[in-house]
Design brief:
The chain is α+β, with helices and mostly antiparallel strands. Helix content is 51%, strand content 15%.
Length: 263
């Protein structure tokens, strides 16, 4: 069985229980809310440009997440997210309205826009499974917790893990062997591809949520750091290989912009 049933998938839950993988659902599952607004190509051309720039606002509503505006042809995709236990403590619709009001006030959204169809979805924000296989079962995508802890993006990991799983299953069919021992190949391949990146992105998520103002300030002054974090967000950089190089860059900026200048 190839399983991809979302953050609260039943088979993945069974596998976690069987393998004694502790779950702290409020801490490793997030919730994102989003709505799309047709605002017209003319407005987006004027405000977001032909290149269709996007916006990220860290720690919206004091959550360990972010709010965003992704501009498309004539539509704005607007939303925010955080961990489930945090989201339960706030008024989700009110905080969404607050963000829309902020965007209107600063000219990033037409004043006539009103929220009508706010949607939400759970995300395994920091919940990658330690063991993703068992007898006759492999888990992929959201069910296995394959989502960037930094951004919540999971489409790339869902497609890639599904592709790898299908290749392993095809070989299992040829050999008529669906044992956990054989299906372990799936996890071995993941370990060599991007799985370590998810752990590194978890580290950067914690760093970004702990010092959002400082990192944004440093990024504004350090073009190299700005490019690094942009690449981390869009997935164009090997996070695990660059982890300590990026960390040392941030520490260097801390010394240059905070410590030395104060001295």
């Amino acid at each position: 069985m190839l399983e991809r049933g979302g953050a609260y998938d039943v088979v993945a839950k069974y596998l976690r229980k069987k393998e004694r993988q502790n779950e702290k659902r409020g801490k490793d599952v997030g919730l994102a809310v989003v709505e799309e607004f047709e605002v017209g190509k003319e407005f987006i051309d004027k405000v977001y440009g032909k290149e269709r720039t996007s916006m990220i606002n860290l720690k919206h509503a004091n959550l360990n997440g972010y709010a965003w505006v992704f501009s498309k042809h004539d539509v704005l995709n607007i939303g925010y997210g955080g961990f489930s236990d945090e989201m339960k403590r706030i008024d989700i619709k009110k905080e969404f309205k607050n963000y829309l009001d902020f965007l209107k006030k600063n000219g990033y959204l037409p004043k006539w826009v009103e929220s009508k169809k706010l949607k939400g979805a759970p995300l395994p924000f920091i919940g990658s499974m330690k063991k993703t296989y068992s007898d006759r079962v492999v888990t992929v995508g959201d069910a296995a917790g394959f989502v960037s802890p930094l951004t919540g993006e999971g489409i790339h990991y869902a497609i890639d893990s599904g592709k790898i799983a299908s290749e392993v299953i095809s070989k299992a069919l040829e050999k008529e062997d669906f044992s956990a021992q054989f299906l372990k190949t799936y996890q071995n391949i993941l370990a060599k591809s991007w799985r370590k990146d998810l752990e590194a992105l978890r580290f950067f998520h914690r760093m970004l949520m702990k010092w959002p103002e400082k990192i944004v300030k440093y990024g504004g002054k350090d073009e190299k750091l700005k490019k690094i974090f942009t690449n981390l967000f869009v997935g164009d950089i090997n996070a695990s290989r660059m982890k300590w190089r990026i960390t040392s860059r941030i520490v260097m900026d801390f010394l240059v912009y905070d410590v030395f200048r104060r001295g």
